[in-house]
Design the sequence.
């Protein structure tokens, strides 16, 4: 089953599962909560224990794994920075990828950061956001986590833009994809533990933190002021709050900022999970 067909099936499920919601960007709350619970159960049963075991490995091993897969992301980030008109950042990302691949043992060492080339992270959903395409409703994908309709629509393109997706044979690619996901989960173990302890409604907490952070990333930390609540239309809740935080994230302060880290990793994990092929070995 191709990515486009999967997206069509998801859209149909969302249409059938939609319900009234108090949040203006969450009309599919019943569906999303069910997927959130499914993902959380899977995480607690398999992914979190695997990440905890992975954390027992030497630090240099974990750093090398993170650097290797992070280096692969720099190429697609460069493309999206150039498409967004951020020419300097785009060429910086190209230089990062070239230096780390050539002189950093295939990306295991991040010598570009030491040389003063900062790391960026961009995807085509962010590019569309910069072009003025609104995010649309919030969606929780099975296995992949938080997203929006806009980002779901271009997820196949983001997957194709990941060099690891094109690695052959699949019996090499798939274990590497699993390692990548476990590494990303290990990075956010502390943040997820904080979430479990601090949030009364973890679904609402994650949703609000994700939407705020995603909007911030689209505009590089400086989103425009707007009378629209989360870019989908006016609501009484938005008022003249400008850039003020709302919902659970507004009332939890420091835990909300910590949760942002987990959200960012979930975004990366979505691409990594998407490349795990179910072809026969």
Sequence:
């Amino acid at each position: 089953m191709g990515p486009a067909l999967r997206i069509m099936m998801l859209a149909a499920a969302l249409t059938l599962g939609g319900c009234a919601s108090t949040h203006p960007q969450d009309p599919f709350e019943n569906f999303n909560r069910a997927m959130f619970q499914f993902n959380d159960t899977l995480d607690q049963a398999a992914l979190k224990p695997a990440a905890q075991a992975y954390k027992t490995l030497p630090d240099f091993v974990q750093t090398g794994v993170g650097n290797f897969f992070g280096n692969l992301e720099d190429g697609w980030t460069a493309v999206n920075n150039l498409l967004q008109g951020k020419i300097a950042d785009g060429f910086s990302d190209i230089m990062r990828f070239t230096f780390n691949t050539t002189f950093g043992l295939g990306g295991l060492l991040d010598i570009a950061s030491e040389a003063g080339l900062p790391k960026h992270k961009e995807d085509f959903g962010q590019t569309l956001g910069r072009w003025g395409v609104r995010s649309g409703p919030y969606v929780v994908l099975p296995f992949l986590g938080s997203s929006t309709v806009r980002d779901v629509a271009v997820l196949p393109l983001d997957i194709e833009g990941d060099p690891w997706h094109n690695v052959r044979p699949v019996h090499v690619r798939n274990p590497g994809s699993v390692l990548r996901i476990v590494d990303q989960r290990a990075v956010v173990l502390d943040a997820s533990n904080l979430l479990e302890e601090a949030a009364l409604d973890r679904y609402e907490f994650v949703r609000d933190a994700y939407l705020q952070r995603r909007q911030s990333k689209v505009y590089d930390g400086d989103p425009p002021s707007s009378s629209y609540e989360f870019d989908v239309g006016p609501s009484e809740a938005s008022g003249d709050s400008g850039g003020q935080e709302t919902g659970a994230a507004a009332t939890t302060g420091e835990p909300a900022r910590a949760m942002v880290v987990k959200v960012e990793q979930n975004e990366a994990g979505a691409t990594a999970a998407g490349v795990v092929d179910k072809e026969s070995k």
The two ends are 17 Å apart (CA to CA). The chain has 13 helices and two strands.
